[in-house]
Design goal:
With about 500 residues, this protein is an all-alpha fold. It has two domains: about 220 residues, MFS general substrate transporter like domains (Growth Hormone, Chain: A); about 210 residues, Growth Hormone, Chain: A. It contains 20 helices and two strands. The protein has a two-stranded antiparallel sheet with strand order 1-2. Helix 1 packs antiparallel against helix 2 and helix 3 runs antiparallel to helix 17. It is globular and about 60 Å long.
Length: about 500
């Protein structure tokens, strides 16, 4: 799984892990901060929240266009510095008056702009690592590993945010409102760590560094120019993929809206036994180790005895810990907060990445690995399956405001839905990014990667549409999302010939 990858992948991935950990630490408590510190209504807070997310995913287009002109490395460095300033301003407690609101707005703008310069351009640099013929066949698996690194940061971020806030309140005597700034300070420190990793590991990715505009120009001149017709064809194909991506993120990011509402209003909030253990982040981490150990044993049949023993320990030690934990606490009743369901997605991404890489590696050896457009289409089909399950199990449930409203659905229904959606995500998101890095014309790589994130931004804004349908019978809500995913899959499969031509 980890073999035959360029060294630069690990440094750039770790740099992104640090940045994403900071981002998700801030995001985990940001909506609550808006209400607690400023007294904003839920409507006002949600508008600020969604517009910030839109900016974060739209601005990579601007950052990519700038990088195409002045160099990807330069924009990444500028982006890290701007993000640092944004988180620094957020970490300063300024009260709840007009000055504090203006400062927060400026800070959010800086975070969004810094992310715009950093996010897409770092991924272009990762794509350029695979221009080396030695690694060309590892592009998809490389981006899958990179995507896993992102989710490692996301997995621990909510716990980090709530823990540091509790420490600030209990040990330092700060109010709840002021304790949010400590979570933002964690994001600030995380970006510093990301910056150090990026600079200290420069030697591992020096082949893709472009330090100034002269170097950028020289690099572009050295790249064989495509004909205008070929350039146009590739841009059109990417635009068609972006159109599908919009509807995937519209469906996928229901995890933060309607699926969370379903968890809050229709799902049992208490669990015991194995189900109760699922909601401990550390228990999930032990499960991840077991998956890694099993995959290691399966994929390294000719490995040394030392390597095999290491993988066996990765299985046995966590399994023993989980058994002991079950014996101690298996009978305890666990109270489940609705937002905690969101931890399953990054957990599943981390756990399933080696499974995905192993599966497609096995298919590649047999000459049967599907091309990226096929994987994207399959991802949309898998997402449709997730909402088909929700549709079936929601039949007979009352609407949200019904007087006989109940909350007794098994939590594993949502856990299973998140699992299936994660399968879809792994087929579509890292593979799609890999596809963009491969297909985009050299002089438009930054802009095209930015286009991917613009599609994500539009999808994030469309997330609210099922929310407006929440007063309708649930099978209609989930069925609509299922149909959207099916239509998007059919569209991808209808243009496979065109997409495969450039892939």
């Amino acid at each position: 799984m980890f073999e035959n990858q360029p060294k630069g992948l690990w440094i750039l991935s770790l740099a992104n892990t640090g940045e994403r950990f900071g981002y998700y630490t801030m995001l985990a408590v940001f909506a609550l901060f808006l209400g607690e510190n400023f007294g904003f209504s839920a409507g006002t807070a949600s508008e600020i929240y969604t517009w910030f997310l839109t900016a974060v995913y739209f601005l990579p287009l601007i950052g990519g266009m700038a990088a195409d002109k002045w160099g990807y490395n330069k924009m990444v460095v500028i982006g890290i510095f701007i993000m640092f300033l944004g988180y620094l301003f957020l970490s300063i407690p300024l009260g709840s008056g007009t000055t504090a609101i203006v400062a927060m707005g400026a800070a959010l703008l800086l975070v969004g702009l810094g992310t715009g310069f950093f996010k897409g351009n770092l991924q272009v640099m990762i794509g350029d690592l695979y221009s080396d013929p030695r690694y060309a066949g590892q592009r998809d698996s490389g981006f899958s590993l990179f995507y896993m690194a992102i989710n490692i940061g996301a997995l621990f971020a909510p716990t980090a945010a709530t823990s540091v806030m509790a420490w600030a309140q209990d040990s330092l005597g700060f109010s709840k409102g002021d304790s949010y700034h400590f979570a933002f300070a964690v994001a600030c420190v995380s970006v510093i760590v990301s910056m150090l990793i990026y600079f200290l590991g420069r030697s591992t990715y020096k082949q893709v560094l472009v330090s100034d505009s002269k170097d950028a120009t020289k690099k572009k001149e050295e790249v064989e120019e495509m004909s205008p017709a070929e350039t146009k064809e590739r841009i059109i194909c990417l635009g068609l993929v972006f159109a599908v991506v919009i509807f995937f993120w519209m469906a996928f990011h229901q995890n933060g809206l309607t699926l969370t509402w379903f968890a809050d209003e229709f799902t049992s909030r208490q669990a015991t036994g194995v189900t109760g253990m699922e909601f401990s982040v550390m228990n999930l981490v032990w499960c991840i180790f077991i998956v890694f150990g099993v995959c290691g044993l399966i994929t390294t049949k000719n490995a040394s005895l030392k390597s095999k023993l290491k993988n066996i320990l990765l299985i046995v030690v966590p399994a023993v810990i989980l058994v002991v934990e079950y014996m101690k606490h298996g009978g305890d009743t666990v109270t489940i907060d609705a937002p905690i369901f969101q931890q399953f997605n990054p957990c599943f991404v981390v756990a399933l990445t080696p499974v995905s890489i192993a599966l497609f590696g096995w298919l590649a050896k047999k000459g049967k690995e599907p091309k990226a457009p096929v994987k994207i289409g399959l991802g949309m089909l898998v997402a449709a399956v997730a909402y088909l399950i929700m549709t079936i199990f929601s039949i007979g449930l009352p609407v949200s405001d019904h007087p006989n409203h109940v909350a007794d659905m098994n939590p594993n229904l949502l856990v299973s839905t998140y699992l299936i959606l994660t399968f879809a995500e792994l087929l579509l998101s890292p593979i799609g990014i890999s596809f963009v890095s491969k297909v985009a014309p050299s002089k438009y790589k930054g802009m095209m990667m930015g286009g991917w994130f613009v599609a994500t931004a539009i999808g994030n804004k469309l997330v609210s549409i099922p929310g407006h349908m929440w007063n309708l019978p649930l099978p209609i809500v989930w069925g609509t999302l299922m149909v959207i995913c099916l239509l998007a899959a059919l569209f991808i499969f209808s243009i496979l010939k065109k997409l495969n031509k450039v892939s």
